[in-house]
Design goal:
Helices cover 47% and strands 19% of the residues. By secondary structure, it is an alpha+beta fold. It has a five-stranded mixed β-sheet. A three-stranded mixed β-sheet has the order 3-4-5. Strands 6-7-8 form a three-stranded mixed β-sheet. 29% of the residues are buried. The N terminus and C terminus are likely disordered.
């Protein structure tokens, strides 16, 4: 669509080089050099002229070269009656009007750098249309850049709107997804507790599998919905007083069976005189649970996972260090991206949503804190969460 945006007053016609062509009358190949010299003499701003035969460009006459040949009387006597074809550049850069700005730039850069100084010929289906100049190419390039910026802005706005719609949808699915899962978990647990002695052992085993799978699925759904709420700006932090040492104890109790099954040592190095924190206990517990679960998941057998916590430089610092596979800087960036999955054999054995670290970092930031990852391949990973002093609550 060509024209101008009436609302913004912005020229929205597609950028093409012919819009900035100099529509100069060309000269015929048989025109005398004297006649061409007079034309240059009459217009001091005229830098070049196209030479055509039957409207097809065959050369280019550049002012500097041409006037140099005819500047003194010997040269003028030699050339003034000869056709201009003897002094033209017979192989100028010729581009079709439909050629993209990028293609013209590439042609000049790779084949004809001199075209920036001498100019080039623009054609329409092979027929002469006008002359291109460095200034015109620059104008077309700037306009093309503006067009692309507008395209990117529109694409970004569409993507942002799509992301908001997705996040709002997932956030609204909380009840619909969690209610049947809680029912599955509850009934399977009831079967486990009441069936012994009255049902076959295999049925009880199946109930245990259903219960474990339901718990795992509920954990994944909770992570997904929490991230959706964060992206939609609907994740609410409940203000309260948090005893970090108690949170650590609870998380360690929850993850100890998995650590033991993986043959890992799970150590706790938390100062017991840590000040109380003001924040959301469930959310802070979720941070630590995600970090410990990740460490257990990606640390090979006979490794070690350490949960630490201390007061440091006016802040409360806690986190998890492991002797696991570790990550490169690029892999850390991927792991901190929602739904990012770092490749690797160990990772493929432990599928998940890829939300553990991103969710932990987002929750820390919602508390006014930070989450940092220090890792190296084969040297393990340390994830450190820092909560500012402003979140500390005075102990009673």
């Amino acid at each position: 669509m060509e024209g101008r945006d009436p609302a913004a007053g912005i020229d929205i016609r597609p950028a093409s080089i012919d819009r900035f062509a100099l529509r100069l009358q060309p000269v015929g190949a048989s025109m005398s050099c004297a006649a061409v010299y007079e034309r240059f003499h009459a217009d001091p701003d005229l830098m070049a002229l196209a030479v055509v035969v039957d409207e097809r460009p065959v050369g280019l006459v550049c002012r500097g070269d041409f006037e140099h040949r005819l500047a003194h009387h010997f040269g003028r006597a030699l050339y003034e009656r000869k056709p201009v074809a003897v002094l033209m550049d017979p192989k100028p850069l010729i581009v079709e009007r439909s050629l993209s700005i990028e293609a013209i730039q590439h042609a000049i850069a790779t084949d004809r750098p001199s075209a920036l100084m001498r100019g080039f010929v623009i054609t329409d289906d092979g027929s002469y249309l006008g002359l291109g100049t460095a200034a015109g190419l620059l104008q077309a390039t700037l306009l093309r850049t503006e067009e692309r910026n507008r395209e990117l802005e529109r694409a970004y706005a569409a993507a942002a709107e799509s992301s908001r719609a997705k996040s709002a949808f997932l956030a609204n699915m909380s009840h619909e997804l969690r209610t049947p899962l809680n029912a599955i978990i509850g009934f399977s647990e009831l079967i486990k507790l009441t069936a012994p002695g009255r049902a076959p052992a295999r049925l009880i085993e199946y109930a245990g599998d259903i219960h474990a799978s339901g718990q795992h699925l509920l954990s994944l759904v909770n992570d997904l919905l929490d991230m959706a709420k964060i992206e939609a700006g609907r994740f609410e932090i409940e203000d309260g007083v948090v005893d970090l040492a108690c949170v650590v104890d609870m998380v360690v109790r929850m993850t100890s069976p998995a650590a033991a099954l993986a043959r890992l040592a799970l150590d706790v190095r938390v100062d017991r005189d840590l000040p109380l924190l003001r924040g959301d206990e469930r959310a802070i517990r979720q941070i630590l649970l995600n970090l410990v679960s990740n460490a257990v998941k990606f640390t090979p057998a006979d490794g070690r996972v350490v949960v630490f916590g201390e007061s440091r430089r006016g802040a409360v610092v806690f986190g998890v260090a492991d002797t696991g596979v570790g990550m490169s800087e690029d892999e850390v960036a991927i792991a901190l991206t929602p739904f990012g999955q770092v490749s690797g054999a160990l990772n493929r054995r432990h599928q998940g949503t890829g939300l553990g670290l991103p969710l932990a970092r987002s929750i820390a930031e919602l508390h006014g804190g930070t989450l940092d990852v220090a890792s190296a391949p084969g040297r393990g990973t340390t994830v450190t969460v820092r909560l500012p002093v402003a979140l500390e609550a005075a102990a009673d």
